[in-house]
Design goal:
The chain has 183 residues and is mainly α. Helix content is 73%, strand content 0%. The chain has two domains: 89 residues, Rna Polymerase Sigma Factor, Chain: A, CATH 1.10.1740; 73 residues, Arc Repressor Mutant, subunit A. The chain contains ten helices and no strands. It is globular and about 55 Å long. It starts with a helix and ends with a helix. Pfam families: Sigma70_r2, Sigma70_r4_2.
């Protein structure tokens, strides 16, 4: 079991950390939650049937750990909504993770601000599909949804993001050519 656990940890710990970091926007808390994920993995690995990929199984556990964390908090629904505010918390670390460096781009920052205005379900789908590059079926398994629900939520999320970004560009007096030129 130790070698299997070590292999799982080496292959996926960064992905699990990034997912939890996007959910809670706090490095230390995300690290604590990653530990909780792997504690649950140790306890449940003998029940893993292999019907899904190990990565999908780990994301499903990580999703449940994040939700359990919010449920334990007073006012967990409000905290969950607030956790997606990228400007509310600053990550302090000498070595930024690649996603933190990408946030320096104005367009990426704009997208994250707009993502904050999407529903929690839409955010989870966007994070899993586009940041963690899970397939539709893997995302469906991780969220315990149907593939149809993932596709519908993804479509609505992308439509909402596009609309919100267009509104933000218009509000800030930027044209789409200026945004494109900044790339």
């Amino acid at each position: 079991m130790n070698s299997v656990f070590d292999e799982l940890y080496q292959k996926y710990h960064h992905d699990v950390f990034r997912f939890l970091f996007y959910m809670v926007k706090n490095r230390e808390l995300a690290e604590d939650l990653v530990q909780e994920v792997y504690i649950r993995v140790l306890k449940a690995y003998d029940r893993f049937e292999g019907k899904s990929s190990e990565k999908t199984w780990l994301f499903s556990i990580a999703k449940n750990v994040a939700i359990d964390h919010y449920r334990k908090q007073k006012g967990w629904k409000q905290r969950l909504l607030e956790s997606f505010d990228m400007s509310a918390r600053q990550v302090r670390d000498d070595q930024p993770i690649p996603e933190e460096m990408a946030l320096q781009s104005e367009e990426i920052q704009m997208m994250y601000k707009c993502l904050d205005q999407c529903t929690v379900d839409q955010r989870m789908v966007i994070i899993m599909r586009y940041i963690h590059e899970l397939t539709i079926s893997e995302t469906a398994e991780a969220l315990s949804w149907t593939e149809s629900k993932v596709k519908t939520t993804q479509h609505r999320a992308l439509k909402t993001l596009k609309k919100l970004m267009e509104e933000m560009i218009e509000k800030e007096g930027m044209t789409s050519e200026k945004v494109t030129a900044k790339r």
